[in-house]
TrEMBL record:
Ranges of residues in domain Dienelactone hydrolase: 5-191
Keyword tags: Hydrolase
Leader sequence segment: none
Gene3D superfamilies named in the record: alpha/beta hydrolase
KW Hydrolase (keyword) present: yes
Protein name: Dienelactone hydrolase family protein
InterPro entries: AB_hydrolase_fold, Dienelactn_hydro, Dienelactone_hydrolase-like
Length: 193
């Protein structure tokens, strides 16, 4: 059994994010799903991103508070805007057991880097090949996988173009792709014990 924190995307803690978390729980894992937007579920990605920009540094502080009382030995996971939080915490909070990065990836080198990937921390990155948001992050995802190494890092690119294709409550949902993401994520968590 692994314990993880799963950060929602810019559309908030939707029913689809809750369902994904519930599937991981059903597989035997402990999943924390903090609501960083305090119940607000924006009606578009743009509206959600505008709200996150309005929150500014408070967005990160809310994530930090969400994990403050949790054990250090966590897996950090996040969808899109929540991916950045998960990746930051996996790279900077001691004790990370792994990371599941969905539909986004932040560079680990260069100007926008969060710093180096921690030694020995396994990671999976998942995204749709035609997703305009993920396409911008794909070079960073490839670099992360190369730097972390094939024994620790995996990149999975799925057919389709929908952003947030893993969220069953949103129009971009792809049932087949989401099922495969869930299967691979569960296998990743199972390996961590």
């Amino acid at each position: 059994m692994a314990e993880l924190v799963l950060f929602h995307h810019a559309r908030g803690l939707t029913d689809g994010v809750r369902e994904f978390a519930g599937s991981l729980r059903a597989a035997g894992h402990v999943v924390h799903t903090p609501d960083l937007l305090d119940g607000v579920v924006p009606d578009s990605i743009d509206a959600g991103l505008a709200l996150i920009r309005e929150l500014g540094d408070e967005w990160d502080r809310r994530a930090d508070r969400a994990v403050a009382d949790l054990p250090e030995a966590l897996v950090y996971a996040g969808f899109s805007a929540g991916e950045a939080l998960a990746q930051r915490l996996a790279q900077t909070r001691p004790g990370a057991r792994g990371a599941l990065l969905y539909e986004s990836c932040i560079p680990v080198t260069g100007e926008w880097a969060l710093g180096p990937w921690p030694d020995g921390v396994p990671v999976q990155v998942h995204g749709a090949e035609g997703d305009e948001f993920f396409a911008e992050d794909l070079p960073a995802a490839r670099e992360l996988v190369d730097l972390a190494g094939p024994g620790l890092a995996e990149l999975f690119v799925y057919p389709g173009s929908g952003h947030l294709f893993t969220d069953s409550s949103l129009p971009a949902y792809d049932a087949d792709g989401a099922a495969l993401v869930l299967e691979r994520s569960t296998a990743f968590l199972d390996r961590l014990g």
